[in-house]
Design a protein that fits this description.
The structure holds two protein chains of two kinds. By secondary structure, chain A is of the alpha/beta class. Chain A is built from twelve helices and 28 strands. In chain A, strands 1, 2, 3, 4, 5, 6 and 19 form a seven-stranded mixed sheet that branches. Chain A has a seven-stranded antiparallel sheet with strand order 20-23-24-27-26-25-28. Chain A has a five-stranded parallel sheet with strand order 8-15-9-10-11. In chain A, helix 4 packs parallel to helix 5. The longest helix of chain A is centred in the middle third of the chain and has 18 residues. The model of chain A has no long low-confidence stretch (mean pLDDT 96). By secondary structure, chain B is mainly alpha-helical. Chain B has a single domain, classed as Arc Repressor Mutant, subunit A (Orthogonal Bundle). Helix content of chain B is 30%, strand content 5%. Chain B contains four helices and two strands; from the N terminus they run E-E-H-H-H-H. Chain B has a two-stranded antiparallel sheet. The longest helix of chain B has 12 residues. Chain B is elongated and about 55 Å long. Classes of the chains: A alpha/beta, B mainly alpha. The interface between A and B is large, with 39 and 35 residues.
């Protein structure tokens, strides 16, 4: 039996963050992960993260994963892959299956960071090949380079459903519809808007009646549901699809903690069976810690902070640091965590209808039901302004903790202020130079550069563009509005790519002047 | 939350439903109807259901169906799923071949 100061189970965002903090304080740390690649869900996240600098905002998830791995390895953390922890016993003994052998380890402290597993819903035909979890689709696309299907229906409008739908589009799939039994879009409006302007129709208050096909999925029927989630007869809609993705929530994978005898609770707000733990993530068994989704389903940014706290707490538990250092670091991390848990999507607001922003502006109801802000709603947001010359238009309409746009502008045209969830405001006195750094910096792809007076009768719109192949300069195509409908002819005036844009390309299209407020996407053919 | 282990609950008579033949536990091919019927036959806890029908005992170890089975049993008993004692977790957490289990302690990594 081999002994380590700290044994971490799960090499995802929280596990690696904990390992780093432990190793920094002199602990000998090993991380086991059952997968062949480390990083947990991080390596599947190809989009830019939200938050502020301290939360690694505007960095793509997989890059954060690479950074964490590098830091861990520099600190001497051993990451063992294809290593399945099959049991956690008395006195912190772990049984690990590596290749075809069973090994025994003992940790003076243990951190369980096993994450969560996807939930399923059942309907007629749900066991047909072609019905997959949204996370599975993401694994196929982003880890293995395999296209999950050609025509896909997505069930679930939370951030997972929205983000994966967009990634499916990026991967060249057609998303036939985005469906959710809830009456309102559950995820960030900006994620919904990205998907909607590509022409994906949203069906809220709808769910799947049945998956069709004999050997595999060949189609799907959805129908509207009433307030009690009962199907309304006569509202059925059919789609020819070969794949159905389910993004209906996650459940913590907390079995190891139960095996170990940690006190557990069934807490629907945290996603299911979770350990009872203190503010440092320590469970009812001294020296066994938890962090990330296994202790309550949230997202990667908060998982990293929880991991840091638990790693530092483990160091204190083992006597490598004093209580003062733990308390001081805890306060810092707690502030960062609270920063992420603010705004409309804060945990306490889950499921609630919020009708006004913190600024008192009515929330776009069209965004919540159709996935995009309607024409008659867009002008109410402070980021949407009109002026001569090129200027940013920020279609950021919900209070989410995110602020990279204000740091991106070299001319300080964009202000969010000290309150991280505030909507971005344009400083009318600052002169935009049209550099496009804000467009590329916005993790939600919600900033556009607009020039209404480009030439007589025409204006330009610069849109963030993350699809390949890139359109060619001079190419003619069509401008699509926020709902993905073709509204005008458009010509590509410029395609900008730069290292600082980090793969968010800037596409400048010329459109009739009355379309500069409408055209938000470009397609060569419709 | 109070856990239910009340043998006095009377779930009433079993009334067939149109989707009773829908498979819920894919690994062990157990249908919704079988789970519902088991409740009427006196299996009120997840442990009993598991031993009676083998739900959640297959390859995925209930990763997919545990939540679904719990929902069906709770509904049949007219209680909230949170009131049901969850299934016991046991090692090995993941399926391990017997020949591997028998091959302990190689060279440490």
């Amino acid at each position: 039996m081999k002994r380590y100061d700290l044994i971490v189970v799960g090499a995802g965002p929280s596990g690696l963050s904990a390992a780093i903090e432990g190793a920094k304080r002199g602990l000998q740390v090993v991380v086991f992960d059952e997968n062949e690649k480390p990083g947990g869900q991080l390596f599947k996240q190809i989009h830019k993260f939200f938050g502020s600098k301290e939360h690694k905002a505007k960095i793509r998830g997989f890059v954060i994963g690479e950074q964490l791995l590098k830091e861990a390895s520099e600190l001497g953390v051993k990451v063992v892959l294809n290593a399945t922890v099959t049991g956690l016993y008395m006195d912190k003994e772990l049984v690990v299956k590596i290749a075809d052998t069973i090994y025994h380890y003992k940790g003076d402290a243990i951190l369980i960071a096993t994450g969560a597993a996807e939930n399923m819903v059942t309907f007629e035909g749900w066991t047909l090949p072609g019905v997959i979890g949204a996370g599975a689709a993401q694994t196929m696309m982003n880890l293995h380079g395999v296209k999950p299907g050609n025509r896909i229906l997505m069930l679930g409008s939370g951030n997972v459903g929205l983000v994966v739908s967009f990634q499916l589009l990026q991967c060249g799939c057609e998303v036939a519809a985005l469906v959710d039994a809830a009456p309102r879009v559950g995820g960030y409006g900006i994620h919904a808007a990205k998907v909607a302007r590509c022409g994906v129709p949203f069906y809220l208050s709808h769910t799947i009646v049945k998956a069709e096909g004999e050997e595999c999925v060949t189609g799907v029927t959805i129908a509207e549901v009433d307030k009690k989630f009962q199907f309304i007869p006569g509202t059925e809609k059919h789609f020819d699809v070969d794949t159905i993705c389910l993004a209906v929530g996650l459940s913590p994978m907390s079995q190891l903690l139960k095996i170990a005898g940690c006190e557990m609770e069934d807490n629907p707000k945290r996603g299911g069976q979770v350990p009872i733990c203190n503010e440092y993530g320590e469970t009812s068994i001294k020296g066994i810690f938890v962090a990330g989704d296994v202790s309550g389903v949230e997202e990667a940014s908060s998982a990293m902070i929880e991991g840091r706290i638990a790693g530092i707490a483990a160091a204190q538990y083992l006597g490598y640091i004093g209580i003062e250092e733990l308390e001081e670091k805890f306060e810092e991390n707690k502030a960062a965590l609270e920063g992420l848990r603010q705004g409309m999507f804060a945990p306490e607001n889950r499921g609630k209808l919020i009708e006004r922003t913190e600024e008192g502006i009515p929330v776009s109801m069209n965004l919540l039901t159709k996935g995009y802000i309607a024409e008659d709603e867009i002008e109410r947001y402070p980021g949407v302004t009109h002026r001569a010359g090129i200027h940013p238009v920020m279609e950021c309409s919900q209070n989410i903790p995110c602020n990279p746009c204000q740091d991106a502008c070299p001319r300080h045209c964009i202000q969010i202020g000290s309150h991280i969830t505030s909507l971005p405001v344009v400083d009318e006195s600052a002169q935009c130079v049209g550099c496009g750094l804000c467009v590329a910096a916005c993790s939600g792809q919600a900033i556009f550069l607009v020039q209404e007076d480009y030439e007589p009768g025409y204006g330009t719109v610069t849109i963030p563009y993350e699809f390949l192949p890139l359109p060619q300069k001079g190419e003619k195509g069509y401008g699509l509005d926020r709902s993905g409908q073709r509204v005008c002819e458009a010509q590509v005036m410029e395609v900008k790519t730069a290292k600082t844009f980090d793969h968010t390309n800037l596409l400048t299209i010329r459109v009739p002047v009355d379309m500069v407020g409408k055209a938000r996407f470009y397609r060569k053919s419709c | 939350m109070q856990h239910i282990n009340d043998r006095a609950i009377a779930p009433g008579t079993f009334i067939p439903e149109p989707d009773d033949n829908r498979i819920i536990c894919r690994c062990e091919e157990v249908t919704k109807g079988e789970i519902r019927r088991a409740v009427h036959e006196g299996m009120y806890t997840i442990t009993e259901i598991r031993r009676y029908l083998r739900t959640g005992m297959g390859l995925c170890q209930g990763q997919t169906c545990a939540r679904l089975v719990k929902g069906i049993v709770a509904k049949e008993l007219g209680i909230s799923p949170a009131e049901l004692i969850p299934a016991t977790s046991r090692a090995p957490m993941r399926p391990v071949e017997m020949k591997v289990l028998a091959k302990e302690e190689g060279r440490h990594v």
